Every structure is written in C-alpha cells, then in structure tokens.
Amino acid sequence: MISFGKASRAPQATGDAFDEEFLKKLEYLYIVSQKIAAGQRRAKRRTRLVGSGIDFADHRHYTHGDDVRNLDWRVYSRTEKLFLKLYEEEEDLFIYFLLDNSRSMHLGTPNKWSMVRKVAAALAYIGLSNMDRVSLVPFSSTVDNRLPPSRGKAQIFKIFDFLDRCEPGEQTTLQSAFKTFVGQNKRPGLVVVLSDFYDPSGFEEGINVLRYHRFEPLIIHLFDERELDFSLQGELELVDCETGEVRQLTVTPAMVRAYEKEFRAFCDELETFCTQRQLLYFRAALQESFEELVLRIFRAGGFLS
Amino acid sequence: MQWTGLPIETVGWMAAGAALIITLLYLLKFRKRSVEIPFSPLWGRVIATRRKQSDWWRRLKRLLSWLLHLLIAGLLLFAMLGPRSTDEVLDGRHLLILIDNSASMGATDVTGGVNRLDVAQRQAREILQTVGGDDRVMVALFNNRVQPLGPFVDDATLLESALRNVEVTANPTDLAQALSFAAHSLQDRPDAELIILSDGSGFDPEMPLPFDPDLGISLRHIMIGEASENLAITAFNARRYPSNRLDHELYVEVTSHFDREVSTRLDISADGRLVDSRTIDLGPREVHRQFYPGQAVAGERLEARIRLTTADARDVFPLDDRAYATVPPPRRLSVQLVSPGNLFIEGPLLLNSHIDFDRVHPDAFDSTASRDVFVFDRFAPESLPDGDLLFFDPPAEGSPFEISGRDDDPILTDVRQSHPLMRWISLSDLNIGSTSTFRRGSDDVDVASTFGRTVILARDDGTRRMVALGFDVRNSDFPLRVAFPVFMLNVLDYFAQDDVDLMYSFATGETWSIPIDRSVTGAEMVRPDGTRAPVALHAGEALFYGEQPGFYELHTTHADGTDRTLLAANLTNPDESEITPRLIEWEEIPTAEDTSGLLFDRREIWISLLLAAMALLFLEWTTYQRRWTE
C-alpha cells in the first residue's frame, strides 16, 4: 500500500545521487543501445528535411526561383521536363525531455520523481553520446525552468546538476505547460514526456499541442503500484496533493476494487490515445528498475531510430 | 416478569449513560483519517458510481451501526435487571437430600450412569443446580450410618464439590437411622422437604413414619435402579478341624436373585492360586450351600468368586461376587513333659505333629529352660519357668495352686462346658480314684469341681495361663476315654490362644473388635487397597471400622517386636444382595416419585441476553470491518 501519510505540501527528497556508479550504468546502457541500433543505421540522426546535403533524397518539379544548379539534366534529356534533385540535409536532432515536476510526482518514498530523474538522465546521456541536442524542461502547471539544448557527453554533468536543483512544482496542467514549451522551442524534435498524466483537465489536449507543432512525442507513463494496493479502509479524508481537494468517504473493499478498475481504465485510455496517434507509449511502474525501462524503450526503437 | 438483578432506577441511569457514551463514540467514529493521494478525480469517478445507491439506504447503513450499539447496550442492561419468568418460585425452602451410598448402590442396572450411586449423584447435582436463591440445602450420605456433607447452606456449589468425592461403600443400609436423622434435621424448618435418592434397600413397609405428618415435611423418593438380577455369595467361612489344625473346611453360600435358572462358576483360590472350580446350576431364587471338607490348602488368603455363565443373563451387582476368608497358619508350640514316666500323657503329645515335644525327668528339670508349655506330672518345680503350665496332680509343696484337701472317688458334679478346655468333650461318669482339690484364687476359673471343691482349675493372670488337674490320670479312666486327647488339644489351644474358631472374618460397615494381647502398645491396619490407618486399642481389643471387602492386615507393636494378623472382611449381607428397587412410602403422607415440581425451570434469561449481545457485537464488528455498515 502506498504510504501517503498525512497530506503535506512539502516534497520529499529522493535521495538518489548521480554518482560514479550511476554514470557507469549510463555508459553500459549507451553501449547496449549502440548494439541494439547496429544493423539499422550507424549514422547520426537525420531530419526529414530535404536540402543541401550530400545524399540524394528525391526529385521534384522545378519552380521559379529554384537553384538551376540542382536541375537533373539527365532526366530532362529523357523526359523533356525539368526536375530538381533534392538532397537530405544533415542537422542536429533536438531531444526535449518534458519532465512532470508536479506534487503528485513527489508523493511517497520512493516517489515517481526519482524514477523520472534516472530515466531522463539515462536517455539524455545516450542522446548526448549520439551528438544530439538535449534539453530538459520540467513542468507542472507551466514550464518551471529549462535546460537549454546542449550537445556532447560532457554536458551530462550539467544535466545531473540541473535535475538535482529542480524544485517541486504545483499541479499538473499539461495543455498550459506544453503550450508554453512549444512557444519557447521552435525547433521540432523528439519530445520525451515523463509524467503520471494526473491532469484533472485531461491529457489529450496537452499531447495534441505537441503533435500540432510537429514535435514527435514519446510518452513514458509512470505510476506507483502502491496506489493500486489501497489497503486503508474506513472513514477517510482523501486530500489531493496537488489541488488540495478534500473528499470524505467511507472506503470499503468494494470501493477499493472500483478504484483499481478506474485506474486501469485511465491507463488504458492514455495508451489507446497514444496508439491511435502512432505515438510511442511506455507504461512503467515505480517499482520497476529504470534500466529495464530504458532498455524497453531502446528495444521499441523509437528513441534510437 | 420479575426482576432479581440490579434496581430498575440504577439500570435506568446506566442506560442513559450508555446511550450517551455510545452516541458520542458513534459521532467520534466519523472523525476521518486524513490521507494524501496523488489524484483525487479517480476517486471522484468511484464516488460517482457509488452514488447510484439510494440515499436512504446509505443513511440507513450509517444508522445501523449506531442502532446495533444501542441494542447491545440495551441487552446488557436488561440482563443486569436479572429478569425471571413470573411462574418461577423464589420462596426459600429447606431441602435435605439423602443419598444412599450403601453397597447395593453399586449395582450397574442403570442408564445414564456407571452405577446407581452415579445416577443418584447426577440427580443430586441437577437438584442443586436448580435450587432457588433463597433455598437452604443439606446433603447427607447414608449406609449403615449417616454422614452429612455439611449444614444447611444457600450456596449449593459447596455441596456440588463435596458430592464429587462420594463413593459406593460396602456397607449395609440402615434406613431407619437415616430417616431419624432427617426428621431431626428438618424439624421446625419451614417448607421442609426430604429427598431420598436411593434404591430403597433396607426399607421395611412395617417401618413407622419417622416424623409427625403434621410437621409439613414433604417426602420425595427418587428410586434409583431398574433390575433385581443378582447372583451373590452370601456366606463364606473357613474352619479348622480340631483334630488337625493344619486342615480346615470351607463353607460357601451362593444366592440367586434371578427369577429363572442360571448357571455360575464358583472358583476357590488360595493365595491367588485357583484350587477349585465348579459349575453350579441355580434355580429361581435358590440358595445354594457348598461345603469343601478337608480342604488342605496351603495358604492363608482364601477367596471365593462366582461368574455367571448363562449367556443371556447379567449380574448387575458385582460387589457381592467375591468373598474372602483367612486361615492363619497355626502356631507351633514347644512342649516339655516333666515326668518320671507316664505314657498316658506322653502318648497324645507324641502323636501331635504340630508341636515340638520333649520329655525330662523331674530330677533333670531346668527351670531356666525355654518352652512354650511345660507339663508337670506329679511334680512342681521350686521356681516356675517362663511359659504356660499344665499340672497333673501337683504336690502341695511347690505348687502354685493352693491345695485345700483330698477326695477319694470324687464325682464331678459341676463342669463348665462353655470353657475352651471343655470343648467337644464330656466328663460325665469320669472315674477318679483320688484327687486333690484346689482353693480358687482371683484369677482362677473353676472348670470342673466336685461338690464345690475344684478338681480342674484354669488360671489366667494376664502374663501366662496355667491349668491344674488334681488327680493322677493313671488313677482314673480319663486316659482311656476319647475325651482325653481332645482335652490335651484344648489345653494346648488354650495356651496358644489359637482357637480353632478364631479365624477372623468380619462384615464391612461395622466396628471390628479384634482380641489382642494387653502388652500391645500400638496397632496399625493395612486396608485391601494398601492404605494404612491407625487402630484404636481398648481393654485388650483393637477397634477398627472397615468399609472395604478384602484382606486386612493388623500390625501390632509390643515390647518384643511386631505381630501381624490377617483379617478378612466381606459384604456377605443377604439384604444388600437383594437389590430389587423398592419405593419408600407411607400411607400417612404422599410420596413424590420424581423431580416434578422440585426443579426450578431456571430460565436464566440474562445468559441468553448476554449471548445475544455478544452475537450482535460480533455482527456489528464483522459488518463494520466489511463495510456493510458505515
């Protein structure tokens, strides 16, 4: 059972340090990620943009204003039509980590925030190792703070330091926070959202904001198994740790079963939403090791491909 | 409805207090524990689903717990009032319960118990458990004596514990004594009732009513027992032959209380070894007598036992199926004849194989010699030796007997036939040529005399016994008679105090008087079950009250050491063996025959109320834990 204890607005310290041991784990995960990626593409990430690169990508009809140096004369000789040769343009991939820093992520010991820190650090390390630009954006009701995009392995310590300094935010409002995010970040890229998605107004609008602004969301849904094993029964005063909303009720075994059913329905709604929109969705329990989760993400291929 | 518990006012105040406390606790119960959760809208969905239940049902569920608590408190308070049915009798009575624990109560012809006494004990316990709060009860046991377990008490539990130790005795029944005790105990007591738990053994219809019918004493006889079929040993004796003190004969009497023919096996064993076994067919109510003449049995513990062999018959009273008898080993005497020569005297002594005999001439007599018996023929030593002494025609000089004169051709006019010396013999027409006559002392008994002058004298001074005959047997026809050797045996038995009839056999339930030597300083009895008990000594007798059939050992202590005497005790009481249940009744007063009207139907309502409260408490706890109630 989750040991919620008395309602408190103060977040609890995670106590998980980014030490040398943790760094070794990240290096190990990086090596594993390289092996998983082998056979797919050894090159760095490329955008879908077509521009002035070296590798041929496609043809398109010539229009006024196009650079005539890119006309494909061989095609013109065969078809007497002007086609322009297009090349893949290499550019850095932007990976944004949207980290839910609301109070619900800091509830209990251990809490979901500790999991968020480790998973975000691991994925960020791999991204940095792949010379991608990695940015961390904690959010709750809005974007609280942000670590600007940075590249190179050496930046991992800056990420550690940033994660350590993050203070708990307020309640979760995905739509508001993500609107702020897309307003601040014009370069599209991969957006890894780590959250429990406990937004009273729903998660759909928030995720759609990312999609509509050409970001590629990768959803990592975190939950605590202790929330399902709700063994406290009797006359209870349930206090929402984010909104402070109080609900007085007599909890019976039937109600606990109903709660479990509602929780699973909530998870299924989120998964169905993501699946229907071809978004990668990962659900992870707090009790699962973060290495397992990271490897699961690698195997799914969404992060490395 | 009657109230025997706390006063109604007190309970009313307690009820008000309890209701207040319960209500406060009920309200306090609604103080909810505060729990922080991550996302309340999920619980909101749950609550929305639950709200489909109707409001009145939810309110009822909340109230149900409070109502249950109020009901529990109400039940407990109601129990405190001690409610009783209106028809219960609460006036105090004086009940005397007489429980028969005589031998016949050991019969096993009962259902619901091991034997009759067991059933009687159950009945007594049932009565004690249902007596009213104001009743006074006394319980007394009776057999051939009455033993109250205590005075009249109002706390029956004291009597119940005493009842557990009651056992069947092997004693006969003295119902008259028990009824007399009851009459005196119940005299002048209001609402007195005599309850007899007995099989009616010992009741004689001719027996008068032991109390005045106008005293208002109610009589109730709860008759215990169902059958009368019993086979009993009603007599078992052993007797030595006078002529052969090593041999003895047995007598067994077997009584059938069956109304049909039955067969039984009669076993005789000595010191645990079976020496005879025979089958006896008995007619209805037949008394069979069996002699065992010349039973040369080596052993002193004789036991007779009967076993019913008729297949479909059952002997319901086992206590009288065994009987015991003793044959103490004869005492072997050392006898010295001091005589210049007399074959008439020497003959019977030589032929007696149970004595150690020797003869010396008077000139060679040593008064310091140690013998049990000295026989002086026409001789009297200057100093008397230790031991018992027999004198034939003692001379006046040196004789311990004072000779008053001498008669020629005397005729024995007075013979004390009851004296042990004269047993089985007759001295009529005894021809004596000449005899001395003795002057009797204070310790002397005149056994035979001629016109008031003593011819044969016996003396017992407490330390030794002496017998004197005033004539020379050679100068009479006494040695020529059959009586002479018998007389010699009688003399030796008299000296040895080894009476052929002295085979100790006693009846249980009596105080036994066992003759002992006056020099005995202490005595102890070992019962058949091995337990020991001190024995009272009085005037040369050991007094002991024996209740168990079997063999007893009397250990006596005196200056020279200790002696052991074996005794046998038997029920062998034809009245007790007649176990047919009989109703004790008189014409003067009615006799109730069961417990109707005696036992209170004590409906302890408070117990039911308490149990109901506990059940409700458990129900409330269960429903609350399962959240059926809120």
Summarize the structure.
With 305 residues, chain A is of the alpha/beta class. Chain A has helices at 20-37, 73-79, 112-129, 156-165, 174-184, 204-212, 253-276, 290-300, and strands spanning 50-61, 83-88, 94-100, 133-139, 147-150, 190-195, 216-223, 234-240, 246-251, 280-285.
Question: How are the elements arranged and paired?
Answer:
The complex is a heterodimer of chains A (305) and B (630).
Chain A (H helix, E strand, L loop, with lengths): L19 H18 L12 E12 L11 H7 L3 E6 L5 E7 L11 H18 L3 E7 L7 E4 L5 H10 L8 H11 L5 E6 L8 H9 L3 E8 L10 E7 L5 E6 L1 H24 L3 E6 L4 H11 L5
Parallel strand pairs in A: 3-4, 3-6, 6-7, 7-10
Antiparallel strand pairs in A: 1-2, 4-5, 8-9
Chain B lengths: L1 E2 L4 H22 L3 E5 L2 H11 L4 H26 L2 E2 L9 E7 L15 H15 L5 E7 L3 E3 L7 H8 L11 H12 L5 E7 L19 E6 L7 E10 L7 E9 L5 E9 L2 E10 L4 E6 L8 E8 L13 E5 L6 E6 L4 H9 L3 E6 L12 E5 L10 E5 L9 E7 L5 E2 L18 E6 L4 E7 L2 E8 L4 E5 L13 H14 L8 E3 L2 E6 L6 E5 L5 E3 L1 E3 L2 E6 L3 E9 L2 E10 L3 H4 L13 E2 L12 H21 L5
Parallel strand pairs in B: 4-5, 4-7, 7-8, 8-34, 16-17, 16-18, 18-19, 19-25, 26-33
Antiparallel strand pairs in B: 1-3, 5-6, 9-10, 10-13, 11-12, 11-14, 14-15, 20-22, 21-23, 23-24, 24-25, 27-31, 28-29, 28-32, 30-31, 32-33
Walk me through what this model shows.
The complex is a heterodimer of chains A (305) and B (630). With 305 residues, chain A is α/β, with parallel strands linked by helices. Among the domains of chain A are: 20-36 and 92-224 and 278-300, von Willebrand factor, type A domain (Rossmann fold), CATH 3.40.50; 50-88, no CATH class. Helix content of chain A is 35%, strand content 23%. In chain A, the strands form three sheets. In chain A, strands 5-4-3-6-7-10 form a six-stranded mixed sheet, sandwiched between helices. A two-stranded antiparallel sheet of chain A has the order 1-2. With 630 residues, chain B is α/β, with parallel strands linked by helices. Chain B contains ten helices and 34 strands. The A-B interface holds A 4-8, 104, 107, 196, 198, 200, 224, 227, 232-243, 245, 247-255, 258-259, 262-263, 266 and B 29-47, 49-50, 626-627, 630. Strand 8 (234-240) of chain A pairs parallel with strand 2 of chain B.
